[in-house]
């Protein structure tokens, strides 16, 4: 890739298994999950309704310059994750304000939780009863502009990326290009989403919601669990990070985006494989260089089998260890691949592979080493993060351990 080398220097993670990189890392290492009955909306009439909600989230801890009420739940997650990422990177807000910045946040649902509530009020009482404050905050653009407003940024581009479950990786790719080409000096990139009735119901009607737990790549997997949260990563040029003595989690070697447009929902093996190979080419690596794959791994029968087949198509009969953290945090939609990239950065820095939990027996149709149930102590050097979305929107990001050499 031409341009400056780009590194990750800060991680902001808001998840059901931990808020902040320290708690997130501990939970990944321990293999904790957060499945429980959904409380965000009335689930009467559903045969099962587990999800991965975030309990005890207090937005006032991180949202200090604006009224939290002006943001929906996903926007609050995004702002909190941005604050956490800057704190983790050791970047004071005043320093960030003095730099050219990019804020790119991916999402599937935007503030659909607010939209669900507004529609219910409209149907039950009439539109004149809708809360104007909720109407104003319901736009998806608030996920990125809310960060800009909270941090008081001026020399900034703010983008909300709406490519469903691949949106977090799309945003990271946007940030990589902006930093590499000198269009921004600091990029806050990732994704955010909140559990909502609309998305849960859609997956439920597709038969894609698991009755109890998410079991990626397991013979008896029965679907996903919807989750919520945000992952925001700080990207900087390598030179800028070294100049300020920053801790470097990983170098972002490259990424690829493809849209096979094969089917609204069904994944396409060849399209996924093509995206992985293009990411390798853009990153300057070969399949045999990859030490770990963070899979999309939703726990649905079609997604897992198709993704596994695409992995074998690219890597042959002995692919690298392949894990899915969705078994722990649920499918956090637009935040999913950003949080998975954060998990990859943690794996590289801390020297362990997070497990695929809730695993009993690997499906022969998947035939992957999914590191079942227990973290594995090892030192992955180059890691691949897959993100696959409805409509065939695929995004793959490649990270490498920073080893202290500039050449």
**Helix content range:** 25-40%
**Structural class by sheet pairing and helices:** alpha/beta
> What is the β-strand count?
15
| First-to-last CA distance | 14 Å
Describe this structure in words.
The strands form 3 sheets. Strands 1, 2, 5, 6, 7, 8, 9, 10, 11, 14 and 15 form an 11-stranded mixed β-sheet that branches. Helix 11 links the parallel strand 10 (292-294) and strand 11 (321-323). The chain has helices spanning 21-30, 73-89, 93-97, 112-124, 132-137, 142-151, 167-180, 197-205, 238-243, 269-283, 301-315, 326-329, 336-350; strands spanning 6-15, 18-19, 36-37, 50-51, 101-106, 156-161, 186-193, 229-237, 250-259, 292-294, 321-323, 352-353, 376-377, 382-389, 393-400. It is built from 13 helices and 15 strands. It has 407 residues and is an alpha/beta fold.
Keywords:
407 residues, alpha/beta, eleven-stranded mixed beta sheet, 13 helices
Short synopsis of the structure:
This protein is an alpha/beta fold. The chain has helices at residues 21-30, 73-89, 93-97, 112-124, 132-137, 142-151, 167-180, 197-205, 238-243, 269-283, 301-315, 326-329, 336-350; strands at residues 6-15, 18-19, 36-37, 50-51, 101-106, 156-161, 186-193, 229-237, 250-259, 292-294, 321-323, 352-353, 376-377, 382-389, 393-400. A hairpin with a 3-residue loop joins β14 and β15.
């Amino acid at each position: 890739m031409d341009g400056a080398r780009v590194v990750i220097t800060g991680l902001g993670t808001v998840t059901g298994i931990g808020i902040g990189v320290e708690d997130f890392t501990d939970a990944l290492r321990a293999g904790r999950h957060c499945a429980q009955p959904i409380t965000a909306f009335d689930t009467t009439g559903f045969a099962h309704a587990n999800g991965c909600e975030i309990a005890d989230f207090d937005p006032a801890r991180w949202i200090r310059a604006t009224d939290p009420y002006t943001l929906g739940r996903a926007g609050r997650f995004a702002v909190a994750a941005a604050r956490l990422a800057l704190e983790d990177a050791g970047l004071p807000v005043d320093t960030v304000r003095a730099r050219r910045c990019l804020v790119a946040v991916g999402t599937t649902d935007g503030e659909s939780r607010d939209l669900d509530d507004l529609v219910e009020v409209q149907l039950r009482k009439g539109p004149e009863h809708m809360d104007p404050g909720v109407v104003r905050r319901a736009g998806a653009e608030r996920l990125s502009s809310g960060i800009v407003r909270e941090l008081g940024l001026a020399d900034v581009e703010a983008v909300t990326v709406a490519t469903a479950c691949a949106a977090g990786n799309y945003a990271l790719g946007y940030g990589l290009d902006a930093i590499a080409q000198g269009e921004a000096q600091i990029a806050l990139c990732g994704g955010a989403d909140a559990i909502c009735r609309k998305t849960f119901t859609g997956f439920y009607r597709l038969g894609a919601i698991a009755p109890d737990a998410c079991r990626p790549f397991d013979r008896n997997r029965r679907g996903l669990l919807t989750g919520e949260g945000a992952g925001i990563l700080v990207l900087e040029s390598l030179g800028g990070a070294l100049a300020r003595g920053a801790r470097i989690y990983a170098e972002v070697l490259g990424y690829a985006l493809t849209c096979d447009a094969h089917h609204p929902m069904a994944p396409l093996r060849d399209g996924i494989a093509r995206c992985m190979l293009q990411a390798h080419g853009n990153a300057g690596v070969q399949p045999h260089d990859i030490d770990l794959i963070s899979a999309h791994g939703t726990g649905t029968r079609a997604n897992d089998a198709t993704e596994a087949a695409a992995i074998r198509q690219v890597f042959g009969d002995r692919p690298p260890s392949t894990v899915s953290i969705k078994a722990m945090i649920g499918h956090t939609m637009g935040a999913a691949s950003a949080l998975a990239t954060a998990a990859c950065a943690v794996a590289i820095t801390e020297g362990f592979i997070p497990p695929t939990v809730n695993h009993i027996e690997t499906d022969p149709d998947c035939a992957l080493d999914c590191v079942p149930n227990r973290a594995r102590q090892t030192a992955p050097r180059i890691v691949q993060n897959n993100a696959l979305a409805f409509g065939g929107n695929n995004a793959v990001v490649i990270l490498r351990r920073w080893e202290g050499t500039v050449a």
